[in-house]
UniProtKB/TrEMBL annotation:
Residue span(s) of domain Enoyl reductase (ER): 13-334
Pfam families: ADH_N (PF08240), ADH_zinc_N_2 (PF13602)
Tagged with keyword Nucleotide-binding: no
Species assigned in the record: Bordetella genomosp. 10
Cross-referenced SUPFAM superfamilies: GroES-like, NAD(P)-binding Rossmann-fold domains
Protein name per UniProt: Zinc-type alcohol dehydrogenase-like protein
InterPro entries: ADH-like_N (IPR013154), ADH_Zn_typ-1 (IPR014182), ER (IPR020843), GroES-like_sf (IPR011032), NAD(P)-bd_dom_sf (IPR036291), Zinc-ADH_QOR/CCCR (IPR051603)
Amino acid sequence: MKAIGFNQPLPASDPQSLVDLDLPTPEYGEQDLLVEVQAIAVNPADTKVRASARPAAGSWRILGWDAVGRVRAVGERVAGFKPGDQVFYAGAINRPGSYAELQAVDARIAAHVPRTLGIEDAAALPLTTLTAWETLFDRLRVEQAVAGAANAIVVIGGAGGVGSMTIQLARALTGLAVIATASRAETVEWVKKIGAHHVIDHRQPLAPQVEALGLGSPAFVFSTTHTDRYLPDIAQLIAPQGRIALIDDPASLDIVPLKSKSLSIHWEFMFTRPLLGTADIARQQEILREAARLADQGKIVTTRTQTLGTINAQNLRAAHELLESGRAIGKIVLAGW
C-alpha cells in the first residue's frame, strides 16, 4: 500500500522529512476496523511528532490523526460496523496513522460520518471536535456554574482548528458567552463567522480587554497556544474559583499565581483514552456520533479552509510548513491517492 512516513526528525522543507513509501497491508485486531483511507486532515500534533520523534533504526513512522475512510474489514469483537461503512476518527498516537491507504483503528473511537458532509469536510472534524468537546465537558465541566462568575469562556487562539470547534460547540450546546482571541483581520472575521460573541486581540494584554466588555470575570478560559505567555493575564481576568484548560506543551508553567483565587487547571490530551485504553474509551465514539448529528442538523460546520490536493509526501510537506508558519486558519485537508 502507499504510505507517507519519516525515519528521522527534519524540517518540513527537507524532501526527506516526509517521503512516499510502499508498505505491507497492516494487521488489525479483534477490536479494530481496517479502513481504506479516503481523506485526511493535518494537525499541529503531526508537525510536533515529525520534528521531534526518532523512529527505531530501519523503521518508518506513519503520522496522521484525522481521517475519513471506508471499512474494508472488521475484527471479531467489533459491533455496529460492517465492510463498506464510511467512518471518521482521530486514531491513536501510539499506532500507525492515516498517512496511508489502509489503517487499522480501534472501532470504539470511530463513528459513521455525517450524512450531509463530503469526505473532505468530514475529515477536518474528528481530532479538533474530540479535543474541544472533552475540554468543555470532561475537563472544564462548563455545565457546572462558578459562583459569582460571568457565564463566559475565553478561547485563546480562536481561529485555530481546536479554537474553531470550541467556539461552535459552546454556541451549539451551552449558554456561554464566547470571547475568542484573534490578531489579524482575517482571523477576526473567521471567529466572528463561526459564532464568537466577542473578539479580543491576543497581541495586547487580555485582562483589560475582557474587563472592557462589561460581562464580569469569566468562569472559564481555554488556552490552545502559548499558555506560559498568557497565564499571568489569565489569572488576572478569570473569576475566583474559575477553571482553566490547556492543550499546548509549555516548557514550564508557574501555577503559583493561581492559588489566591483557588483556580483549577486542567490538561486536555485527546489521545489519553485510546493511548491508555481507559475504561471510558468508547466515549470518543459517542462524541463523534453526537458531532455527526450536530453537523447533519446544521448546528456545527466543518472548519476545513483549504484542500492541498491528493495524499502524497510533497503535499503533506507543504501542509506541515503552512501549519508551522502559525498563519493557518481552520483545518488543512488532503484527499485521494
